Amino acid sequence: MPEFVASLLAAGAFCLTLLALNALTRLLIQAHYAPADLGESGFLQIGGALILARIAYRRAPHSQLD
Question: Which of these, 14, 13, 42, 12, lies nearest to 26 by C-alpha position?
Answer without folding.
Answer: 42
